[in-house]
Design a protein that fits this description.
With about 450 residues, this protein is α+β, with helices and mostly antiparallel strands. It has 3 domains: about 80 residues, no CATH class; about 190 residues, no CATH class; about 150 residues, SRA-YDG (PUA domain-like), CATH 2.30.280.10. Helix content is about 45%, strand content about 15%. The protein is built from 20 helices and 12 strands. The strands form 3 sheets. Strands 6, 7, 8, 9, 10, 11 and 12 form a 7-stranded mixed beta sheet that branches. A hairpin with a 4-residue loop joins strand 2 and strand 3. The two termini are about 25 Å apart. About 0% of the residues have low confidence.
Length: about 450
C-alpha cells in the first residue's frame, strides 16, 4: 500500500484489489507503508469493518489485533504505527455536525425516509448516541439537520425529551428504562414485575435501594435543582407502594410526536445495554472494561445526588468508594497531584490517596476498615486525558496493605500521602492490561 487516502471505503477498495482470487494464489500479504496522515484512525475502521465511529471501539479493535477479525486473517501493527493511530484517534474530530449530518443523509437516502436512532443500530452504522451528545436529543439534531422534514415539539416537550435522552436513557443502566417503559404502557408497576423483567432479560434482580434510586432519577432529584428546573422536571412518579406516574405527565409523554422520539430513545437504551451486557463480566451495576462517566458512576452506585464535580480522584459516600485514575498523567500538572498509581501485576494495583492524608485520617481508616463496614471500593481507569472524561471499570478491589509515604509538593515541601496495595477481584484481561501498561 503506497497511496494515502482519507476514506475508509477507498482504503478497502485498494485492499480488495490484492484480495482478488487467482489460480495458485493461496494467500496475500499486505504491507502498508502509509500511516502518517491525519486520518489514519480510518485504518482500523476499514480493516475491522466497524462503522460506529466510536473512539473506544476503535481503540479496542486496535488493541485486540487479529482476535477481532473473523476467519484466518491476521493483522499486526508495529509500535510506531500503533502510536500514530492512537494519537490520530485521540485528535480526531469524528462528531462534527457536518459528519453527523452526512451519515444521517446517507441513511435517509438508503431507507427512503427520515431515520431514527434505532435505524443506525439496526444497520450497524454510526453510534447514534453521538447525535444526543452533539444536540442534547436526537430530535434537536433532526430539527437542525433536516428542518424541512422535522416534527414539531413544544419547548416543554423538547426539554422533557432532552432530560430523558441525556440524564436517563444512555444505556449505561437499564433500571430506569424498565420502569419508564412499564409506566408508559400501563397504570403502575410493582416491584415484583420490575424484578421479573430484570431476571428474565439479564439474570439478576435489584434491591429496594436501586428501585428508589431509579425513581429519584426519573423524578429529576439526582441532578442539580437548576438543571431540573431547566428541563421542567417535577416529582411525577410515586414509589410509596406500587410505582405510579402522574396522569398529566404521562399524557404529555404519550403525545404522538413526543412519544415517537421517546420510544425510539427507550428502545435504543434497551438495545445498547443488552448489546454491552455480558453476565460473566457484570459486577453489581457495572460491566468490566466498559466506560462510565463520573455521573454514570454516581447514578449506578445509587447516590442521592450527582456529585461528579466534587469527586476528583475518589470519594467515600453511601458506603461506596469509587476511585478514578488517569494512568498516564500530564507532565505539567503540579507535583502534589502527580501520584504514582500503577499496576504491580494483573492482580495488584498500587494507589495513592490525595496528598495530606495520613494513616490515621478518616478516609484511610474507612478504606482499611472496609471489611467491617462493607465498604465497596471500585476502580475506574482511563489511559490519558486524551481519551475524554469516561473511565474503564476495572472491577472492585480490596486493600491488602497500606503505608505512610511522602510526596514532594510545590516549593519542595514534603506532604504526607498513603499508599494502598489493592487486590483486584478480577484479574485484568491481558489485552486491557497491555494497553494500559504500554508507553503508547
Amino acid at each position: 500500500m503506497l497511496r494515502p487516502t482519507q476514506s475508509a471505503i477507498i482504503f478497502v477498495q485498494q485492499l480488495g484489489r490484492g484480495l482478488r482470487k487467482h489460480f495458485g494464489k493461496e494467500y496475500l500479504t499486505v504491507i502498508d507503508f502509509i500511516g502518517n496522515y491525519s486520518n489514519n484512525y480510518l485504518v482500523p475502521i476499514a480493516l475491522y469493518g466497524d462503522r460506529s465511529y466510536n473512539k473506544d471501539t476503535i481503540r479496542k479493535m486496535l488493541n485486540t489485533g487479529s482476535s477481532s477479525i473473523p476467519g484466518c486473517s491476521t493483522v499486526n501493527f508495529d509500535r510506531i504505527t500503533k502510536e500514530r493511530i492512537y494519537r490520530s484517534i485521540d485528535q480526531a474530530q469524528i462528531r462534527r455536525f457536518s459528519d453527523l449530518k452526512h451519515d444521517y443523509q446517507l441513511l435517509e437516502y438508503e431507507l427512503g425516509r427520515a431515520p431514527m436512532m434505532m435505524d443506525f443500530l439496526d444497520i450497524g452504522g454510526r453510534e447514534p448516541y453521538a447525535f444526543v451528545d452533539y444536540s442534547g436529543s436526537y430530535y434537536n439534531f433532526v430539527k437542525k439537520a433536516d428542518p424541512d422534514n422535522a416534527d414539531v415539539l413544544t419547548k416543554k416537550e423538547a426539554d422533557l425529551l432532552e432530560f430523558y435522552s441525556k440524564e436517563i436513557l444512555n444505556g449505561k443502566r437499564c433500571e430506569e428504562t424498565v420502569i419508564l417503559a412499564m409506566l408508559l404502557e400501563k397504570e403502575s408497576a410493582t416491584r415484583d414485575e420490575i424484578n421479573n423483567i430484570m431476571n428474565n432479560n439479564y439474570g439478576f434482580v435489584i434491591g429496594e435501594d436501586t428501585i428508589v434510586s431509579a425513581v429519584r432519577n426519573l423524578n429529576g432529584e439526582f441532578i442539580k435543582d437548576a438543571a431540573a428546573r431547566k428541563y421542567g422536571i417535577t416529582h411525577n412518579i410515586d414509589a410509596a407502594s406500587d410505582i405510579r406516574m402522574d396522569g398529566g405527565h404521562k399524557e404529555i409523554l404519550k403525545k404522538s410526536t413526543l412519544y415517537k422520539y421517546l420510544n425510539d430513545m427507550i428502545r435504543y437504551s434497551f438495545k445498547r445495554f443488552k448489546t454491552d451486557y455480558d453476565k460473566t463480566k457484570y459486577r453489581n451495576g457495572f460491566m468490566l472494561y466498559k466506560k462510565y462517566s463520573r455521573r454514570d458512576v454516581c447514578r449506578i452506585l445509587n447516590w442521592d445526588r450527582n456529585e461528579e464535580s466534587t469527586i476528583y480522584g475518589y470519594r467515600i459516600k453511601h458506603n461506596t468508594c469509587p476511585i478514578f485514575v488517569t494512568y498516564n498523567k500530564k507532565e505539567d500538572i503540579s507535583e502534589s497531584t502527580k501520584y504514582e498509581d500503577a499496576f504491580v501485576n494483573p492482580y495488584i494495583f498500587s494507589w495513592m490517596t490525595r496528598s495530606r492524608v495520613r494513616l490515621d485520617s478518616n478516609e484511610a481508616i474507612d478504606i482499611n476498615n472496609y471489611k467491617n463496614s462493607g465498604l465497596r471500593i471500585s476502580l475506574f481507569i482511563k489511559k490519558s486525558d486524551a481519551e475524554g472524561s469516561d473511565f474503564y471499570y476495572m472491577g472492585d478491589v480490596t486493600p491488602q496493605s497500606s503505608s505512610q509515604e511522602e510526596i514532594t509538593g510545590s516549593g519542595g515541601i514534603k506532604l504526607p500521602i498513603v499508599n494502598f496495595k489493592f487486590a483486584m477481584h478480577d484479574e485484568v484481561e491481558e489485552s486491557m492490561y497491555n494497553y494500559l501498561e504500554s508507553s503508547i
